[in-house]
Write a structure and sequence with these properties.
The protein is built from 3 helices and 5 strands, in the order H-H-E-E-E-E-E-H. With 136 residues, it is α+β, with helices and mostly antiparallel strands. It has one domain: Peptide Deformylase, CATH 3.90.45.10. Strands 1-2-3-4-5 form a 5-stranded antiparallel beta sheet. The radius of gyration is 14 Å and the shape is globular.
Length: 136
């Protein structure tokens, strides 16, 4: 189900709780909502659809990637950039890292550990910030 985008700053600034298997309907809603906004959105966190759980969806080329309880374990190559957000008006400056390593659970609840670079790494960092209650 496509859900409305949350724009309440107080809600978005609250850190999210770890997801459980009972949160899979919300994960599917997050994927549906990302697809509905794909023309102008490349990633979303569950709090952006009103769910305080550590779930993100990222557009990774031709496929959307679901990450449950993501944790960035390594990062290197800091750089300054500007980002926008579907939940916020305008763009803001932020520091991101060119290369990251992430541990997460996939849609089948299997533990994954993957490295990402470039734009996909930037999207993941933005969405993990959302999970932590950090707004750009």
């Amino acid at each position: 189900m496509v859900r409305p985008i949350m724009r309440d700053m107080m809600f978005l600034a609250c850190p999210s709780q770890p997801a459980t298997p009972q949160d899979m309907p919300a994960a599917q809603d997050l994927m549906d909502t990302l697809r509905a906004h794909e023309e102008h959105c490349v990633g979303m966190a569950a709090n952006m659809i009103g769910v305080h759980r550590r779930i993100i969806a990222v557009s990774a080329g031709f496929v959307n990637l679901l990450m449950i309880n993501p944790i960035i374990t390594k990062k290197s190559g800091p750089y300054e950039t500007e980002e926008g957000c579907l939940s916020l008006a305008g763009v803001r400056k932020t520091t991101r890292y060119q290369r990251i390593e992430v541990e997460y659970l996939d849609a089948a609840w299997k533990k994954q550990r993957r490295a990402f670079e470039g734009y996909t790494a930037q999207i993941i960092q933005h969405e993990v910030d959302h999970c932590d209650g950090v707004l750009i």
